[in-house]
Design the sequence.
């Protein structure tokens, strides 16, 4: 999990924010950085391991998401640095501090991957929403950055869900709780 805020309290920060409050923001952003770095790698994994009749559409849809998620990670890391913190972007820091497991789907049909990816996006988006709420109590600049990320992540999830939705608006993977369950339901569609 995240380090205690006192471990993240910088020696200096941006004008108008107390050092302890900056430490809270650094902690929030640190977990967003880990989530974004993990999402970037997960998206590339999907890009490399997708197969089936929807291969080209999904393969080409994923790369712009990868690029934007990498930009978001850079934004989060640079905000951490501006607040006086250290942006821990190493794999070891990500693995040691994350609260989620690795993406669990290997080579699979495009729709199976998208079904599992929908759950990944849900987890990332829920984390960003919680961070937006907490950042909003401290700093509008950090809150604004996170809201921008949230907008793009929700759009990417919409792109994914469009492949999983019926004309009547029902999500084929509704009610699933694990990537494996979602992928199995998605494979039935594919």
Sequence:
């Amino acid at each position: 999990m995240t380090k205690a805020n006192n471990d993240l309290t910088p020696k200096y920060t941006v004008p108008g924010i107390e050092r302890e409050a900056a430490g809270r923001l650094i902690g929030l952003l640190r977990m967003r950085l880990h989530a974004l770095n993990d999402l970037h790698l997960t998206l590339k994994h999907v890009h490399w391991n997708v197969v089936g009749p929807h291969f080209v559409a999904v393969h080409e849809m994923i790369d712009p998401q990868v690029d934007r998620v990498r930009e978001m990670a850079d934004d989060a890391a640079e905000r951490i640095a501006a607040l006086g913190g250290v942006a821990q972007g190493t794999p070891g820091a990500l693995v040691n501090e994350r609260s989620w497991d690795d993406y669990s789907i290997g080579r699979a049909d495009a729709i199976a991957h998208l079904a599992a990816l929908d759950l990944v996006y849900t987890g990332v988006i829920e984390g960003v929403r919680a961070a937006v709420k907490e950042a909003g109590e401290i700093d509008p600049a950090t809150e604004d950055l996170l809201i921008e990320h949230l907008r793009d992540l929700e759009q990417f999830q919409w792109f994914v869900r469009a492949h999983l939705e019926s004309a009547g608006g029902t999500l084929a993977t509704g009610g699933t709780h694990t990537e494996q369950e979602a992928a199995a339901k998605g494979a039935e569609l594919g």
DSSP finds seven helices and two strands in the chain. The longest helix spans residues 19-49. The domain at 5-189 is CATH 1.20.1260.10 (Ferritin). Residues 75 and 145 are 8 Å apart (CA to CA).
